[in-house]
Amino acid sequence: MNVNHVYVRPVYEESAFHVAKRILHCIDFLSTQPQIGKQGRVARTRELIISNTPFIIPYRVKNNVIEILRVLHGAMQKKHARNEVEQVRKLSV
User: Fold this and answer.
1) Cα–Cα distance, 9 to 1 (Å, whole number)
2) Residue 81, SS3?
């Protein structure tokens, strides 16, 4: 899994390892508690905030399957959320 390497790479290697491990742990937990994330900014999505990190995981539950849309750095979230809204609008026309 590519975890926004642009943001993680400059951090010391050990810190990057712990951030990646934390993200994977939260994804595992999500598989047992799919509604734990807050309602997302894009229709029919949820957002899991990874505590003690700047990362957010937008996802959706479709046919009892959790679809992780991406792993976002919090600073990039607004830009990607706007792009996703535009993509959803284009698909639903």
Assistant:
1) 14
2) helix
Q: Say if residues 76 and 47 touch (Cβ distance below 8 Å).
A: no
Residue 8 reports pLDDT greater than 80 = no
- Residue 7 reports pLDDT greater than 50: yes
> CATH for 5-91?
3.30.2310.20
> Which pLDDT belongs to residue 28?
93
Identify the H or E element spanning 16: helix 13-32
pTM here? 0.66
- Nearest Cα neighbor of 67 from 93, 91, 44 is 44
